[in-house]
Amino acid sequence: SSVRTIVSAVALAQEQGAPRPPISSRNVWLLAGGRTVLLENWNTTPGDLKYELAPYRAPELARGAPPSPATSVYALGVLAWEAFVGRRPFTNLTPEAVLQEQRGPRSSRQS
Q1: Distance CA 81, CA 78 (A)
Q2: What is the pTM of this model?
Q3: Residue 109 scores a pLDDT above 80
């Protein structure tokens, strides 16, 4: 499946110590013959990345933690959700609103 192909590509990159490319539906191409390609969007501007990647950003990244294999798993999960359901888990939210949702209620951040 396409999702399996993307997961395998990200796992291979991590095993080799390469940083993962930004994972989003914008950089996954489904080609003829069932081929799937994960592109590195180096042509995407920082402003575009903010809006494009917000739904794929793991909650721990939103809290300031460094990227890890787990953050890739989260992004892959959002991508799989989008592929199977036809929409992102967070819809009609600005990147700031997604960040707030991921950080959780204000009271939990103060403890």
Answers
A1: 5
A2: 0.72
A3: no
Q: How far is CA 24 from CA 13, 41, 105, 108, 109, in A?
A: 16, 10, 26, 29, 28
In tens, the pLDDT along 58-107 reads 888 777 888 888 888 888 898 888 888 888 887 767 777 877 777 666 54
State the Cα–Cα distance between residues 56 and 86, nearest whole angstrom. 15
Per-residue confidence (pLDDT) for residue 107, from 0 to 100: 46
Distance of CA 74 to the CA centre of its chain: 7
DSSP state of 59: H
How far apart CA 89 and CA 48 sit, in angstroms, is 19
Torsion from C-alpha of 5, 7, 13, 14, nearest 10 degrees: -160
Q: Are 31 and 65 in contact (CB under 8 A)?
A: no
Give the residue from 4, 12, 64 showing the smallest Cα distance to 28.
Answer: 4
Q: Phi-psi region for residue 68, left (φ > 0), alpha (ψ -120 to 50) or beta? A: beta
